Amino acid sequence: MKQIFKLSALLLALCFSFVSCQKDYDATPDVQEPVTNNPFKGTFKCKIDGDMFIAEQQSATLTDVNGVKTLTVTGIQYGFERNDQNFRSVGFTISNYDGNKKYPVGGNVQVVYTIMVDGYATHYTSNTTNANYHVTTTGSYVGTFNTAVAEVGNTSNKIVLTEGTFDIQ
């Protein structure tokens, strides 16, 4: 009887030692969570030749390379098919960004409007300087814009972007 009791105690002690040494289960041990500059929250909208453009996805990134800051803001509106073959996007980049103020389009500010239809892209860029064309920032990823863009390769085909606002959080 003593041997059964000793054997049972030894077996029970071994079971507890194996259970207590087991590591916690991790289903994704090497997967790192992505680091995002900011989430795709907020608003980005404007009128494109008078028709309302409301982005379904928007982003803003502020980079600093050797003390030179660049702000990039983009909004994307998908087509009915909701795929990467049919969409419109409006975006701008401010080079030498130095805080909240009015930036004239041209030079340090470039605006790009892209129409993608069935995988074929038509790009429009800002190619003129006009006192009425500007991007104004009023907060972190907040501001307004008005400009005209011309089709790349056919500068006589122009589109006007008005009443543009962005507030990306």
What does this structure look like?
- It is a single chain.
- This protein is mostly beta strands and 169 residues long.
- It has one domain.
- 12% of the residues lie in helices and 53% in strands.
- The chain contains 1 helix and 11 strands.
- Strands 1, 2, 3, 4, 5, 6, 7, 8, 9, 10 and 11 form an 11-stranded antiparallel sheet that branches.
- The chain starts with a helix and ends with a strand.
- Residues 5-15 and 31-39 have low confidence and may be disordered.
Could you outline the blueprint of secondary structure elements for this entry?
Elements: H1 2-21, E1 42-48, E2 51-54, E3 57-65, E4 68-78, E5 87-95, E6 102-104, E7 109-117, E8 120-125, E9 134-139, E10 142-151, E11 154-168
Antiparallel strand pairs: 1-2, 1-11, 3-4, 4-5, 5-7, 6-9, 7-8, 8-10, 9-10, 10-11
Summed over residues and divided by their number, the pLDDT gives a mean of 81
Largest sheet: 11 strands, antiparallel
SSE pattern, N- to C-terminal: HEEEEEEEEEEE
Task: Please provide the count of β strands.
Answer: 11
Number of helices: 1
How many structural domains? 1
| Proportion in helices | 10-25%
**Share in β-strands:** over 45%
List the uncertain runs. Answer: 5-15, 31-39
